Amino acid sequence: MKCSGARANRIFLITALAMTLVQLWVAYEPLVGQAVGRPYMHAVAHFGSYLLLSLVWVFGLPAVPATVLAVAVSAFGFGQEALEIVGHGHGLEMRDVALDAAGAIVGATLGGFLRQLWAKSQ
Asked: Which pTM value belongs to this model?
């Protein structure tokens, strides 16, 4: 069964919303902060999760420029880190904010490029 562009966009949008809700849950669940044991894996988790989140948002909202989505997902990452002050009981971790923003920028850039390739193939 072939998936139409509009249907694929809806699937990406639903996935992006679900991933965003998971990120909010992560901010409030103290045990999640301890789930990744090694420090470098903590950095990979932040960068990778925001790369994927941004990438999915780019495909979920094809009419929105990827640069706008990079800024929006980066801002969400800052907010999510601020929520961790309550959920995890620690101060604002600017390193994590930077990793989230870097992942969001890379994800949106990659998503914008892939979105252009997909549009040309249709």
From this structure: 0.87
